[in-house]
Amino acid sequence: MSFIRKLLLVLTALAALFTFAPPIRAEEKINVYFFYDRVCVHCQAEKLVLEEMETRFSNIEVHYLEITQVPENNALFEQVKEAFEYNGLTPYTVIGGVALSGYNEQVKKDIEKLIARYSRTDYVDVVAKIIAGEPLLESDFDTLGFSAGDTVVIPILGEVTIDSLSLGLAAVVIGIVDGFNPCAMWVLIFLITMLLHEQNRKRMWILGVTFLLASAVVYFLFMVAWLNIALSVVAIGWIRILIGLVAFGFGSMNIVKFVKESRAKDVGCEVTTPTRRQKIMEKIRDIVTKKSLLPAMIGIIVLAASVNLIELACSAGLPLLFTQILAYNQLAYGTYLFYILLYILFFLIDDLIVFTIAMVTLRLTGVTNRYQKWSHLVGGAIMVAIGFLLVFFPNILSFQF
Amino acid sequence: MRAVRIGAMWCPSCLIMRNVYDKLFKERGIAIEDVDIDLSPAAANGYQPGIILPVLILFDGEKEVLRIVGEKNKKEILKRLEGLLS
User: Fold this and answer.
1) How far is CA A265 from CA A323, A370, A372, B64, in A?
2) A188 CA to chain B: closest CA distance, Å?
3) pLDDT-based confidence at A20, cuts 50/70/90?
4) Partners of residue A368 in chain B, C-beta under 8 Å
5) Does the beta-carbon distance from A186 to B10 stay under 8 Å?
6) Does the pLDDT at position B47 exceed 60?
7) Which residues 6+ apart lie within 8 Å of A376 measured at CB?
8) B14 and B70 in contact (C-beta within 8 Å)?
9) Average confidence (pLDDT) over A125-131
10) Which is it for strands B2-7 and B32-36: parallel, antiparallel or unpaired?
């Protein structure tokens, strides 16, 4: 299998991570509200498709609502966008409790899917309620969730079957991949080496656990800060595209790194920035040799915070993108924090394993660098996949297919 | 024959290779001299270790006869040692 095909398979599998199962609501007839602009090319393309659908599906009625010539339609369009809290551009299609913006093959499939869904289940016609001036309930809105066996159209690959997976799985997978990018691992290894010289097992455990906990807290605070920023800019289209492009760029760089590492003759620890390393090692020696526990613990916390913040630059891409995905999903704030904690748990899993084995056996075991190149490939592929989805299919990341 | 192993305390690859080298060389009665790149930078640099650790150098008298860089599996190391230790 060629490298490109392997890569496409990895990207497909990653796209499959971002799926969800939705709730549904009630009504009989299927109204399709199509807001369009008479000069927009995509609107014309979708109009033709909807006209064809009207002949194919006898139970639908398409309402063609031109917004530049008819002020009432434009006013309704504004009300609808506000109701859905989805500030998309034309063509803008609403069926039941789902709004779709833009047009491509995926949108066509989504419309067909909604028609099929509402042909067999009840639903609420949100636009009809807006026109009637009825108050809207949160439960009136629907999501275009995938169910097992549904497909998504991905350029090059075509139709890809998607099984139902969740944000939780995304947190676990991306967290593990991020954790295997061992930027700060050397600090832990050195710290454990120094701790193993300690006679006091209890002190070893306390200082080691403090380091890991402080690392987790720093990562957590960083991710929460980014989540708050992401939540405040989530509706701005150009920022989404910019982040998508940056993710695509960083992901590609990681894949190039993988190719270079695959060609490299020798795999091992790369000796870089000796001065900074020496300084950090001096700090660790100083902390570990402190007689009192409390100053040593404070020293460890400061060390963990500074090291993780500095090293964050080397793996910032994945946590940033994960919080970006979270921001695209409307969850309770506590649920956001839960997913971030889940991410961090799996991010630290390799560190926890190395530390626990060392503390129990009093022997230090390393994590081989042989797999580092694969973390660059998978991490890069995830970034490329998320970047691609952010630019072309943001609704997949928002789990509102 | 003598072996010099250049590594660092913080390097996971050095930890992984330590056991492999210890066992292989002990069986053949060859002592390994450890040089830490941070604790003895001058001594380590004298061997021009490059940027990838660990580095194992085998000397026959004063002559370097073999250099193994980075993580290698046991089979690969044995293949490279073939003929040198017989």
Assistant:
1) 37, 12, 14, 20
2) 8
3) very low
4) 12-13, 16, 71
5) yes
6) yes
7) A181, A254, A255, A257, A258, A261
8) no
9) 91
10) parallel
Tokens at B28, concatenated: 């053949």
Model pLDDT, residue A121? 76
pLDDT band for position A50 (50/70/90)?
A: very high
Global ipTM = 0.84
Closest by CA to A99, choosing from A70, A71, A130, A69, is A130
φ and ψ of A158, to 5 deg: 80, -145
Whether B53 has its CB under 8 Å from any CB of chain A: the answer is: yes
The residues, any chain, with a CB within 8 Å of residue A218's CB and separated by 6 or more, are A304, A305, A308, A309
Q: Do A271 and B53 touch (CB under 8 A)?
A: yes
SS3 content of chain B, % helix, strand, coil (to 5): 35, 30, 35
User: Residues of B with CB below 8 A from A365's CB?
Assistant: 15-16
Q: Which two tokens stand for residue A254?
A: 């990681």
Backbone angles phi, psi at B66, to 5 degrees: -155, 140
In angstroms, how far apart are the furthest CA atoms of chain A?
83
Amino acid letter, A228: N
Reading the block at residue A236, the tokens are 């701005």
Q: In chain B, which residue's Cα lies nearest the Cα of A182?
A: B12
φ, ψ dihedrals at A320, nearest 5°: -65, -45
